[in-house]
Amino acid sequence: MLQRTLFRSSRQAARCVTRSQAPFAAQVPRQVGAIRWYAEQPTAKEGETAAQKTSGEQASQQQQQQNEATQLKEQLEKKDMEIINLKDKYLRSVADFRNLQERTKREIQAAKDFALQRFAKDLIDSVDNLDRALTTVPAEKLSSGENPDLVTLHDGLKMTESILLQTLKKHGLERFDPSLEQEKFNPNIHEAVFQAPQPDKEDGTVFHTQQKGFMLNGRVLRAAKVGVVKNS
Question: Does Mitochondrion appear among the keywords (predicted)?
Fold first, then answer.
């Protein structure tokens, strides 16, 4: 009796286990089918669409990079032109400033050189009077020694003239006598008073100085009045 009861209990338990496992066994194929249905590999059409999208993005990026490069190039060219213009203006300004400096320097120097021009013109008359006083004394009277006072006076005037000419030379005023070296007539520094034949001299040669000339810092202050040779 006890054995029959245990046998029945075991058979009922086996049936219960079989019934409880049956739904799980039926669900397994469904899960496997679901896994196969949602595969990770894309279809050929989806792959082509993704490739086209990627290539389109790359082309858009390349076009954007080209546009940026073009803009940068234009900006650099614009900056280069601005640099060239500014450099040209700078060089012009420097050149103008240097020209102004040189011009101002020349004007200041000219003002210094010729500041005494009017005074020098009045002073050369006194120099002419000294020269006339010295030339009026004959050389024979000076060498004979008959009148020592005259010789002393002549020497004093000669010394005064020499010191005066040296002082004037320090300030740019110089006297010149073209007949001493028999210079050629130069209308820029000579004034022809008369012409005379001189067989032993060439035409156009200065053979006599009536009034000596003066130069102030290389510029003619007074032209020398001269006599010029003319044989023909």
Answer: yes
Nearest to 182 by CA among 162, 203, 213: 203
- The structure tokens listed for 155 are 């020497």
What pLDDT does 45 receive? 56
Burial class (CB in 10 A: 0-12, 13-18, 19+), 229: buried
The predicted structure's pLDDT at residue 4: 58
- Per-residue burial over 76-111, b = 16 or more CB atoms within 10 Å of its CB, e = otherwise: eeeeeeeeeeeeeeeeeeeeeeeeeeeeeeeeeeee
d(CA 88, CA 94): 10
Q: What pLDDT, on the 0 to 100 scale, is given for residue 165?
A: 92
Q: Can you give the residue ranges of every domain in the chain?
A: 114-229
Match 């004007």 to its residue by tokens: 107
Vertex 151 angle, CA 147 and 154, to 5°: 140
Contacts of 42 (CB under 8 A, 6+ apart): 50
Q: What is the spatial distance between Cα 215 and Cα 49, in angstroms, rounded to a whole number?
A: 103
- 94: its two tokens: 């420097």
Number of H helices, E strands in the chain: 5, 6
At the top level of CATH, which class does the domain 114-229 belong to?
mainly beta
Question: 64: which 2 tokens?
Answer: 């954007």
What stretches in the chain show pLDDT beneath 70?
1-48, 50-53
Q: Facing residues of 190 across strands?
A: 224
pLDDT one-digit tens code per residue, 87-109: 999 999 999 999 999 999 999 88
pTM given for the model: 0.54
